[in-house]
Specification:
heterodimer; A: alpha/beta; 6-stranded mixed beta sheet; 8 helices; 12 strands; about 30% strand; globular; B: alpha/beta; Rossmann fold; 4-stranded antiparallel beta sheet
């Protein structure tokens, strides 16, 4: 195993009754890389994401993070181990500001005996820094979420997910229902994230332009099995669609 | 120009949600007694098109002709009156009410005595039982909706929509989350209904549409990439068009 592998999935299988959802699926996710996950209806993508996210437990196989075997009884354990997932516009409160959404549930505060005051300026500055780090200058942390575009909301959702500095971030079709400009902004943000953070990414997308543009390693699932794995540059569109059916 | 066999003609239909182009310049014809599947990635515009056809959303541009007449429904009621019905998955059922009440909700059978009306429960029960039996289901008309499986709920919703004898039935992702058995049952209903009317169903993937469809239309980022007879296109080619947008 290469030391550069953040996540190793080794021989994962999962069945639901007679249906074999995943069959001996293995892959390695390298540090600072994006792996694209592609597959037709019922290919096993959702099951794989749920296994990695701790929603379901595999029947067989092993998951290793930074070389250590891990198993998750629930999503919190996966999160604690360094795997997180962003759902589209997940739980953003439209009427609250960007910084309030970013820190929701984990606000920074000063304590004066039993009294607490929020460190508002610190939180605003942190959000501003975090967004700038990944090349996002168009979002003002004091703006309300309802004033943001779809792409800016998606960037905020992802930024919040990676505030805990996870090893692995899973993005399930993060570019759907976005304008062309917003797609460009989110793609640029994800690319910067790969280059400027220690978080590696698993990206589900069925847009081959995006796959070719963003992804370092492509894996195709077909009826629960891996049918193609490698650099997208090595595969033609024919190769990809052939392996999906 | 619409052909004689055309039930619906759509021309230049576009809809934006602020800066997001939901659908752009969509044009197609739907033949009578046919089942059209629309596939496309999430956000490709499938649901927007169905919502326009159902009068739930107004297009920014474009025109439609239904049964030879201009069709521009202001709301779903307009659409129903023009012969277009759409099912909204399971939330349209009242969980606390039995199957027969859900089936007839809003159009209860009754007898009038001057200004007074009585609801004819016995008749409604037996009519629903007969109808469900005709479709091959045995899930008891007195069961509460909350006791039904996901597949049974979906079948009840679709059966109810068909009962209004629409010319066009719209189903958005009808098979999602159902067991194989329920999918096959639902497909059987659609096949039978297509003898009387036309159907448009959507799905992300061609493989999820089933063998019943006559034509498939591929959407990508709000555009209609093409409409094909299922005799002339493969699942693989559909995947390619959906993912890359060019043949």
């Amino acid at each position: 195993m290469s030391e550069e592998n953040v996540l190793v999935v080794d021989g994962i299988s999962k069945s639901y009754g007679a249906v074999q959802a995943l069959s001996d699926v293995s892959f390695e996710l390298q540090r600072n890389s994006i792996m694209g996950l592609v597959g037709d209806n019922g290919a096993g993508k959702s099951t794989l994401l749920k296994v990695l996210n701790g929603y379901i437990q595999p029947d067989d196989g092993e998951i290793r993070i930074e070389g250590k075997p891990v198993s998750f009884a629930n999503p919190q354990q996966a999160y604690d181990a360094g795997i997180t997932m962003t759902y589209q516009y997940m739980a953003l409160v439209d009427s609250a500001t960007v910084w309030e959404n970013f820190f929701m549930g984990r606000e920074k505060a000063n304590s004066f005996g039993p009294l607490k005051t929020l460190k508002t300026d610190t939180m605003i500055a942190t959000v501003s820094e975090q967004l700038s780090k990944y090349g996002v200058e168009s979002i003002d942390p004091t703006d309300t979420v309802e004033s943001l575009t779809g792409g800016q909301k998606q960037i905020l959702s992802i930024s919040r997910s990676i505030a805990s500095e996870p090893q692995v971030l899973m993005l399930d079709e993060p570019l759907t229902e976005l304008s062309r400009d917003d797609r460009t902004s989110v793609i640029s943000f994800v690319r910067n994230l790969r280059e400027r953070s220690d978080t590696s990414i698993i990206l589900v997308s069925h847009d081959l332009d995006i796959v070719r543009d963003l992804v370092d390693h492509l894996m195709i699932l077909n009826q629960g099995e891996t049918t193609l794995s490698g650099s997208p540059a090595d595969f033609t569109t024919d190769d990809i669609v052939d392996e999906m059916v | 120009m619409a052909s004689a066999d055309s039930l619906l003609t759509v021309e230049g239909l576009s809809k934006n949600y602020q800066e997001v182009v939901a659908i752009e310049d969509i044009a197609f014809e739907l033949e009578r007694n046919s089942i059209l599947g629309i596939i496309g990635d999430n956000g490709a515009g499938k649901s927007t098109l169905l919502s326009i056809l159902n009068g739930y959303v107004k297009p920014d541009a474009g025109s439609m002709v239904l049964n030879g007449e201009a069709y521009a429904p202001a709301n779903p009621q307009d659409a129903r009156e023009a012969g277009v019905a759409m099912t909204y998955e399971d939330f349209a059922l009242v969980d606390g009410a039995p199957v027969w009440e859900n089936f007839f909700m809003g159009r209860e059978a009754g007898t009038s005595y001057g200004p007074l009306k009585t609801i004819d429960q016995t008749r409604m029960r037996s009519e629903v039982a007969e109808k469900l039996d005709e479709y091959g289901f045995d899930f008891g008309v007195d069961k509460h909706s909350s006791e039904l499986s996901g597949g049974q709920r979906r079948i009840l919703v679709v059966s109810r929509a068909i009962e209004s004898q629409p010319d066009l039935l719209l189903l958005d992702e009808p098979f999602r989350g159902l067991s194989e058995r329920a999918i096959n049952q639902l497909r059987g209903i659609l096949r039978e209904f297509s003898e009387d009317g036309s159907v448009i169903i959507t799905s992300q993937w061609y493989s999820a549409l089933g063998d019943e469809i006559d034509d498939v239309m591929v959407f990508r980022q709000g555009e209609n990439v093409g409409k094909f007879s299922t005799d002339n296109i493969t699942r693989k080619e559909c995947n390619r068009l959906m993912m890359e947008g060019s043949a």
